[in-house]
Write a structure and sequence with these properties.
Length: 227
């Protein structure tokens, strides 16, 4: 175990933070699978039809299609409203995952006022502007936990939608009863990471060297809330 914990020595970052990023990646995979199940339930597709369409679409077309189709179904309004809430939460989770997974390491940050520390994640916007996020370990854990909560929430909604479709096909839609609220806890809306323009680049460092040395840097900052 001691030997394995030294890897990777080329990323001198806290092990727990790196582990949390891995949990985010895997948790998002489960959440995306739940969105696929919802896609199939709402549109009434079998497994092969769903896979042929779902994986050819980005998240925005997937969400737009579901929202549009929900408005054209007879699914009870209560279930529709909760499904829209799930889709809104999914979008925030997906954005958080995308930005974390497509960022690079800018090293560590330490808050001068309270001593908290964490990773500096760096990425570029679509317009080419550099952005960074001072993220702490609790924030990374929260991102993963929110994905898990919405996965469980989505499962209850898929069950409701499937049960309603089954009753509808037998002409018994009036008998539909959604799962009790005790079995379907509505999670809080996920929080969004705060990405901002970075401080001016450190002078005297060749641009080609920055990607190599950035994981080794430690920056201090004030007490402002970076999320």
């Amino acid at each position: 175990m001691a030997e394995s914990t030294s890897w990777p020595n080329y990323l001198p970052l806290p092990r727990e933070d790196i582990f949390a990023i891995g949990v985010i990646a895997l948790s998002y995979g489960r959440l995306e699978n739940m969105l696929q199940a919802m896609f199939a339930a709402v549109i009434h597709l079998n497994q092969f039809q769903t896979q042929a369409l779902f994986h050819r679409m980005g998240n925005r077309p997937r969400l737009d299609a579901l929202i549009d189709l929900l408005g054209k179904t007879t699914i009870p309004q209560e279930v529709k409203d909760l499904t829209i809430y799930f889709l809104d939460g999914f979008e925030v989770c997906a954005d958080n995952r995308h930005f974390v997974m497509h960022s690079s390491s800018g090293g560590l940050h330490v808050n001068r006022s309270d001593g908290t520390r964490g990773l500096i994640l760096e990425r570029y916007s679509r317009t080419g502007n550099k952005l960074e996020c001072y993220v702490t370990l609790p924030q990374l854990k929260t991102i993963a936990d929110e994905m898990h909560a919405f996965t469980i929430f989505g499962a209850s909604l898929v069950t409701d939608i499937t049960n309603y479709a089954t009753l509808l096909s037998h002409g018994q839609a009036q008998d539909f009863q959604p799962l009790p609220s005790t079995s379907r806890e509505k999670p809080p809306r996920p929080t969004t990471l705060n990405w901002r323009s970075p401080d001016p680049a450190t002078p005297g460092i060749p641009p080609a060297a920055l990607p190599l040395i950035s994981p080794y840097r430690v920056r201090e900052h004030g007490s402002e809330d970076d999320r």
